[in-house]
Amino acid sequence: MIEIDGTWLRLADITKVAAGGTRVTLAPSAVERMAASQRSARATARARPVYGRSTGVGANRSVTLDPTDTGMDLHGLNLLRSHAVDAGRALDRETVRAMLVIRLSQLSAGASGINPAIAEALVEMLNRDALPEVREFGGIGTADLPALAGTALTLLGERPTMGGGIIPEALDGWGTEDALPFISSSALTVAQAVLGHQKLAVLVENLTLVSALSFTAMSGNPEAFSPEVARASDSPAVGEMAATLHGLVAGTGVAARIQDPYCLRTLPQVLGAVTEELASLELLLNRLVVAGHENPMVFGSETDGTNGVAHHGLFQMTTLARRIDALHLALGTACATNLRRIDLLCDPAFTGLNRFLAADDSGQSGVMMLEYVAAAAAGLVRANAQPVSLQTVVLSLGAEEDASFASLAASRLDSTVQALATMTAVELVCSARTLRMQGRKTSEFSNPLLRRTLETGFTLPAASQDRDLRPDVDMALKLVRLPALGRHP
User: Which residues form a coiled coil (predicted)?
Assistant: First the structure.
C-alpha cells in the first residue's frame, strides 16, 4: 500500500503502482487539504469571476456561466464531454496507472479546489484496476485535457473502461467547479516521463557495466579514467563517471595502446552527460508529481479571509520539454560510441580473434548482422533526439498561442528505451563472446560488479558457429533490463 499525501511521492513508487498489484490510499492530511482548498475556491468564486468556474474556457473565457445550480452542473459535464476526444492507439495499462497515481498526488497538493470525493473515486479506480482507455493523440504540452476528461467520463460511467465494462460505483454527477480543476494537469505527460526515466536509469547503469566489459575485451588504457582526469573534468557527472569506470576496469589487464579510440577514451564524457541529464530530469519530475499547477491556482484559507486564486501558465510544460530534449541529445550522442565499440569488437586488430567473432576464418559471418541491428536501433534514438521544444502552435481562436509539446517528447521516451536496450544487449552479446573466446575467466576480475556482469554475460549461449542469434539478443535484452545487471548471477 502506498499512501498519497500530496507532499512527496517517490518515482520508484509510481513505477510500482504502474506495474499493477500495488494499492494506494489517500492520507487524511491530503483529504483535509483538498477540502480546505474546495472551501477556499468557493469563497473566492462568490467574490470575483474565476476562470472555468464562473466563465467558459479558452476563447470562451469572456462568457459568463449560468449561475443556477442546474446550469453550472450541465456546463461541467459539457466541458468534460467536449474535451474528452482523443485518437490513435490506446496506451498500455502501465502508463494509465502512472497517470492516475500522479494525478492523485497533484490533487492532494491542495491547489485545485476540487471535491475530495473525486480523488477518492480515483483511488477506487486504481485499486480495482478499472482503468480508462487513453489514446496517444490529444495533448500538446499544455495539460493533458483529453486524457483526463476521458478519465472523468469513465468515472461517471459514460465511457467504458479498458476492459469494456462500466466502472463500479460510478460518480453521481460532476459540478462545473470540479471539471476544469480535474483536467487541468499534464499528468499523462509526466507519467510517460517518469516511466521512461526510471527504465533509462536502469539501462544506463547497465550500459556502463557493458561498456566496461568491452573496454576490457579490447585491452583499453585506463589512464583516461584516472583520478587526475576525473579532477580536471568539466562536470561533476563526468568526474564521477571516470571514477566509476576506473574502479570497474582496474586490474583487468595490460593496455594494448598508448591512446584508445574515442569510443573507449571518452566514455566518461559520453556516459557522464547521460547521467547528468537523467539527474536533472529526476529533480524536475520529483517536483511535478506533487505540483498543484491547476489553472487557476487556489490558495489561502476561507477561515482567515486569505483565500484567492491566481490565473497562470504553469501548465505549460516548457521546462519538461527541454529536460527531455537534453536527455535525448545526450543519448543520441552516446549511440555513436556504442556502435563503434560493437564495430571494434568485430575487428581482429582490437580483439586478436577472427573477423566478426566467428568460430573460424573460413568466411563465417559470426556477429556481423548484430551491427545492423544496433545501427537500426541507433537510428531511432537519433531520430527521437530531434528537439521538440522548438515546436509551437496557435489554437482556440488565438487565445492559446503557444505549446511546449512536452507530451511528444515524453511519448518518445518509450521507444528510446526499447532502442537503447537493444543496443546495450547487442554490445553485451559481443563483449561477452569476445571475453569467452579470449579465454578470460571471471576470477581474473577484481571488481565484484564487473565480475558479476561477466558471469551474467557468460550465461548467454557459448556456441560460436554461425547460427540464429535472435535468441541471444532476446536473452540479453531481458538481462540488460534488470536493475543492477552486475549484481545478478
Answer: none
